[in-house]
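Could you join me in thinking about how sequence relates to backbone shape in a protein? We need material for that, and I hope you will provide a protein of your own picking. Label the sequence line and the structure token line clearly, so we can match residues to local backbone shapes. Would you write everything just below, so we can both look at the same thing?
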Amino acid sequence: MRIIALLKEFSKSTRLYRITKTATIAQFHSRQSLKLPEICWLRASVWIYPSAVLTLGSIAFHTYASGQEEEDDSWRPPFRKDLPTFRAEEVKLHNEKDRKLWVTFRGGVYDITEFVDVHPGGKIIMQAVGGPLEPHWQRYNFHKQEDVYSMLEEMRIGNLHPDDVEDAIHDCNTVAEEVKPGYTPKLHPSMNVKSVQPLNAETGIGELVESFYTPNELFFKRNHHAIPTVDEHNYKLKVSGVGLEEREFTLEDLKTKFQPVSVVVTLQCAGNRRQDFNAVKPVRGLQWGPGAIGNAKWTGALLVDVLKEAGFQSIVENGAEHVQFTGLDDNGTGEPYGASIPIDVAMKPGNQVILAYSMNDKPIPVEHGFPVRVVVPGVVGARSVKWLASIVLSKDESPSQWQQSDYKTFNPSTDWPTANFSTVQAIQELPVQSAICSPAENSSFPRGTKTIAVKGYAWSGGGRDILRVEVSADNGNTWHSADLHLHIHERRNARFAWTLWTCEVPVEENSGPITLLCKATDSSHNCQPESPNSIWNIRGLVNNSWHKVQVHME
């Protein structure tokens, strides 16, 4: 089928369309009354594939791209006289691969058997087999695009009987009434909205270095479902698994039964700086700049203390190998966000994994996980699950699709048809990273300027300290050491907060455009790679190549 071939040729395509849309926060809030998401705005131009950016049945990971066009809910598949007509009862029989996988959509019947095999979110699309797509697309409205409809039609095998079309419409309307857009926070004007539903927004790059502690309202927002609202008075955290007594803890229990511990931890999205990979080859996913990172003081109960209360003795005696976390944000799909960390990470002295209920000395905001989220220092933000519902000690990793089929990297030559997520380790610790936050891209300076004041952040995973940051204004021929600003004292190998830095960089007189470069080295002498070419991957994750900002002399 041509659609499968199209997907397999995804990365080889050279056809790109440029979409430029600017969203103000006022525009964003003017749409809060919508029951379902209608549009994803951009603050910048991005390049996207015309057909392959949106694929059927997937959740935001893998297919969400900044730059969605206005949704089109008017399309209906034409009646095809050259194809047979099926009843819904017959479609229901096709729900296993040995009988082919069929779905229906607004009068059409489609065979998606081959598509599931090349679709990273196949687990989700399997929920629709044997029935209508409409209810599922009500939950994820971003599928309602012309390109998706065209792709779907290439899998068309028949027509759905008119009587059954009416039943599907009824089911769709029922789901529309059930689906809630979730909590919508008031966004700071500087936040760059990457997607509306689920809400994803990054901190304006200039604001990042204004404070060692990122203000709660400026902390980047990363969600995989609609944001749930949880009644703190009815909240219960379930703890169970290998070698444990099954226990439940209320928010009050976590606050009063356990010694509160505060840790300063930087959380970074695995996709931070994804957009820079597009210079090598376009990648799928939210087009994050360098603002998908933030630093905060988190207060809560130590995970190890809570596990001991449930009967945990030691790693050797317990026998578990992983700690699984599951959230409350399933948005009616039955697939809440989940993740896991190795048990040695959870129990390592000094790591201080906490069940946080406070962020910067205030109750955690709803969008950041109220009433409780896990905070895993030194590890990718994807493992710090929000709206924490359960903790399970297990011999296995979390079965969540975000642990099994996402947040993993491949070599630059691996493309979607050859990517086998089951053979690749999930990302845990992140490598050394730095970025220039000031001056901004395309800033102008008067001719005759002799030095430019450059500011930014640096951070490394696993508790590694930042040894040095270097900045260049002549394409890396000459490097200047930045001044590192250490705001708090942290133990060796337990440096979980970022380092802010400044550097006065000399520039040549009367020069034209200047490319500022920065790179960091951590306490294990790990250095950032010069180019994104060698670390490019299909998911666009873990880009820690030298950061570049171009400025001009006028």
Remarks:
- The domain at 216-411 is CATH 3.90.420.10 (Sulfite Oxidase; Chain A, domain 2).
- The chain has a mean pLDDT of 85.
- The chain is about 15% helix and 25% strand.
